Write a sequence for this structure.
């Protein structure tokens, strides 16, 4: 077996010397190639050879050093991989031996081939001795599983295979050992050892191929784990030290050179670079980063050298969160699977009853060789039934689909979200921060009467400094840019959905939208033309009144995201209607919507009304996806059939949304829906074939075609069909990997 | 009808009724768990029905002794957990249910089932 890496908890550590003592004790175990103990996380990570080292040995070494190991966290990804490979290897060896022996028996007994075979292979006793290892060594796992299942009063695939092949083997053995007795009851003493041996060989081959294909369905997690850097270059006392990633602490300063991976999440302290984040976000263009900006663990540094401060380590990093989310999604069940689960739980007992019925009918009604026909058709029924294909139909597609999404920066919370996204016909975009970059800037400042533009900006910025509104920051920044020193404010008050009021010096200030002016009986008719003009350009206009008279206007505009136009167009191509929701007035909102190609606009919607607007559209019978930037939109995201958050993996948004687009690319909305549609199509095709296969071929195996066309199903062909049905379902799911997503 | 055919028909009828009763009419005994339970994975799950307390973390140790590939994964879909169960190794999952009710768990292919009753 290959070397594996295992991480487990240690109890009883309290100082750095414990780390040294434990590492020494673990490294002293023969077969352990490396051991790293982390005091902060109280975990040990050990690389060891599983052929010489067991978990008990490691546990003993920890106990010997005076601590306690907790191995209960389960096998590591390496151990799981090693166990899967071992099981695959065993299956392959058994399949090869069974098919070689089965092939020899087949050669010596099949009517068309028998004349070309050596006389030895035609001997029934030789055939029996060749079948025994296949039946009782290669087929032992079928018997074991059957006995375990029967003890629990349950039955499965193995029950059918073991009963079917045992019937064929026992009948053949009786015919071989007591030929005269068999002749006396009117039967030709002809054994069917080839049936038993070849069936076992083909089913084992099918399972081997199925196991290999299934491994491909969970590759996404392996790929994500493989992205993790192994070491970090920590700067201590002015020197660089390469340390294992497990030993990195929050606050450590880490240097990254060109061509190296960023080991953990953090903030750049010194230097700048271009960083390839495609492995996390799916966005292929490298992102330029300077001091103060966030870097993500597992991304690739392209050009410059920089030093950053670690802010998130271990399970808190974005990569770890993404892995957890994909694992969660793959562990969930799609609603469509429930029907398959229901049928699977009744399937085997029903097949057993059908097999009994087949035997009785053929024995009672059959004209020639009723016993032989009854046995062969019963075996065919037992062998052809394939519950595995039904069981594999949904989860394999979900695993490939969610993995494919993660590759493109589309994180799907669970299988149900993936299934629901398939039905979406209306997408509601929040404007600020979703369609736009969420970084508005002041575009126009107008002054009326004897006021100067600088006075207007001074008043607006002074009063907005106390506000938490998203536009306030833009106005304060503009004032700073103009070197305007801000004053102090008294009696500040925010009026939700309208603006702010307060006193600057002895002057009473009102700053906000038209509704605020109307409520306070401020006449703004003289500025109507300017306001209309600015709004028609998609700018948000705020009016400033000083001591009850209109004094000026400040207009703010946000820039559209590069992907906004293409994102909306991609949805249109899918036949999905886009809607924009915003607190802006109708004219400004319509102007922005027109720029991105959205015709339906919900304007002047207060933040707490967004959820109600989503429900109104749902009430019209629409399946709604809400796209928001997370925190403010949380109720609307939760109310929608599918909430899609534009955000980073560490954002709170992940909790509120069903799907998170790490790349913040609006084209990914259509990509996520396309992925959902293709995954659901794959699931439906899989279920159709899996159910159709059983519904059509079980009656054929029972002999339903015999009265009309004299067609019966040879049990060997039944086993071939059975093996192929599982492989075809897994193979069809793997096709999902080939789809091209424009994310 | 010959006597052998009558006997086969009667045995077939009996076999079908027995199959139905044996596999489809079994009742699993519910085992009450406080904080930790070992579930043997062999031909199904033993115990197959466990009751656990609401709002508390319960540790479930799965130990697979059955080579049947159907059982190589366990899925607790309501808790978003899918775990590979290597043969003869203990695999632990921890759950902290937030709502009362009965939640199914199954093997990866949905052939074998168990229940978690949250009280």
């Amino acid at each position: 077996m290959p070397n594996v890496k295992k991480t487990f908890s240690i109890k009883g550590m309290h100082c750095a010397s414990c780390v040294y003592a434990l590492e020494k004790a673990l490294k002293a175990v023969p077969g352990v190639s490396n051991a790293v103990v982390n005091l902060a996380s109280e975990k040990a990570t050990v690389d060891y050879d599983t052929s010489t080292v067991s978990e008990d040995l490691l546990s003993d070494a920890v106990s010997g050093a005076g601590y306690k190991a907790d191995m209960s966290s389960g096998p590591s990804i390496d151990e799981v991989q090693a166990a899967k490979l071992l099981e695959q290897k065993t299956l392959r060896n058994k399949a090869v031996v069974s098919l070689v022996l089965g092939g020899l028996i087949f050669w010596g007994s099949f009517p068309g081939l028998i004349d070309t075979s050596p006389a030895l292979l035609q001997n029934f006793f030789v055939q029996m001795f060749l079948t025994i290892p296949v039946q009782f060594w290669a087929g032992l796992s079928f018997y074991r599983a059957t006995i375990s299942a029967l003890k629990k009063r349950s039955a499965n695939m193995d029950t059918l295979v073991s009963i079917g092949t045992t019937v064929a083997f026992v009948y053949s053995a009786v015919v071989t050992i007591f030929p005269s007795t068999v002749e006396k009851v009117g039967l030709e003493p002809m054994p069917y050892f080839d049936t038993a041996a070849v069936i076992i060989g083909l089913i084992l081959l099918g399972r081997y191929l199925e196991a290999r294909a299934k491994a491909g369905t969970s590759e996404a997690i392996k790929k994500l784990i493989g992205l993790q850097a192994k070491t970090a270059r920590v700067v201590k006392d002015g020197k660089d030290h390469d340390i294992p990633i497990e030993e990195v602490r929050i606050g450590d300063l880490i240097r990254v050179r060109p061509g190296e991976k960023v080991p953990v999440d953090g903030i750049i302290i010194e230097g700048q670079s271009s960083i390839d984040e495609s492995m996390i976000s799916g966005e292929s263009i490298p992102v330029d980063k300077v001091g103060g900006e966030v870097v993500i663990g597992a991304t690739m540094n392209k050009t410059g050298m920089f030093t950053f401060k670690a802010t998130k380590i271990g399970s808190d990093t974005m990569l770890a969160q993404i892995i957890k989310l994909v694992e969660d999604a793959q562990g969930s069940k799609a609603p469509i699977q429930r029907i398959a689960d229901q049928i699977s739980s009744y399937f085997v007992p029903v097949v057993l009853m059908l097999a009994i019925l087949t035997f009785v009918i053929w024995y009672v009604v059959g004209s020639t060789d009723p016993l032989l026909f009854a046995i062969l058709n019963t075996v065919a029924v037992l062998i052809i039934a394939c519950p595995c294909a039904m069981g594999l139909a949904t989860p394999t597609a979900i695993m490939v689909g969610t993995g494919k999404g993660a590759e493109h920066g589309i994180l799907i919370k669970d299988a149900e979200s993936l299934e629901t996204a398939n039905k979406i016909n209306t997408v509601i975009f929040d404007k600020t921060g979703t369609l736009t970059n969420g970084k508005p800037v002041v575009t126009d400042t107008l002054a009326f009467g004897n006021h100067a533009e600088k006075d207007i900006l001074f008043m607006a910025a002074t009063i907005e400094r106390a506000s938490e509104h998203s536009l306030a920051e833009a106005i304060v920044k503009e004032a700073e840019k103009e070197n305007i020193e801000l004053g102090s404010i008294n009696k500040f008050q925010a009026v939700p959905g309208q603006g702010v009021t307060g006193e600057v010096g002895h002057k009473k200030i009102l700053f906000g939208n038209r509704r605020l002016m109307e409520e306070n009986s401020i006449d703004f008719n003289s500025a109507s033309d300017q306001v209309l003009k600015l709004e028609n350009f998609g700018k948000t206009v705020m009016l400033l009144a000083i001591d009850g008279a209109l004094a000026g206007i400040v207009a703010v505009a946000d820039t559209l995201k590069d992907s906004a136009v293409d994102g909306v167009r991609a949805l249109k191509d899918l036949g999905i209607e886009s809607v924009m929701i915003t607190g802006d007035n109708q004219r400004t909102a319509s102007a922005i919507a027109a720029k991105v190609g959205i015709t339906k606009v919900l304007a002047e919607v207060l933040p707490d009304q967004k959820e109600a607007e989503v429900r109104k559209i749902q009430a019209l019978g629409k399946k709604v996806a809400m796209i928001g930037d997370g925190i403010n939109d949380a109720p609307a995201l939760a109310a929608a059939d599918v909430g899609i958050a534009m955000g980073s993996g560490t954002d709170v948004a992940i909790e509120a949304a069903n799907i998170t687009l790490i790349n913040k690319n609006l084209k990914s909305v259509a990509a996520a829906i396309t992925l959902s549609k293709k995954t659901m199509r794959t699931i439906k095709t899989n279920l159709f074939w899996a159910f159709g296969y059983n519904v059509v071929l079980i009656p054929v195996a029972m002999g339903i075609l015999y009265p009309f066309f004299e067609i019966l199903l040879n049990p060997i062909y039944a086993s071939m069909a059975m093996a192929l049905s599982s492989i075809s379902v897994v193979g069809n799911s793997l096709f999902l990997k080939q789809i091209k997503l424009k994310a | 009808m010959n006597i052998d055919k009558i006997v086969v028909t009667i045995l077939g009828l009996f076999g079908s009724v027995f199959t139905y009763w044996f596999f489809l009419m079994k009742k699993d005994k519910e085992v009450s768990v406080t904080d930790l339970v070992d579930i043997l994975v062999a031909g199904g799950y033993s115990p197959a029905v466990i009751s656990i307390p609401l709002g508390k973390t319960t540790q479930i140790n799965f130990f697979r002794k059955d080579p049947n590939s159907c059982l190589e994964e366990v899925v607790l879909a309501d808790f978003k957990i899918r775990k590979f169960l290597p043969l003869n190794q203990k695999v632990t999952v921890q759950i902290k249910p937030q709502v009362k009710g009965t939640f199914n768990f199954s093997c990866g292919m949905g052939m074998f089932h168990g229940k978690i009753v949250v009280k």
Remarks:
- Chain B touches chain A through 54 residues (CB under 8 Å).
- Residues 93 and 108 of chain B are 15 Å apart (CA to CA).
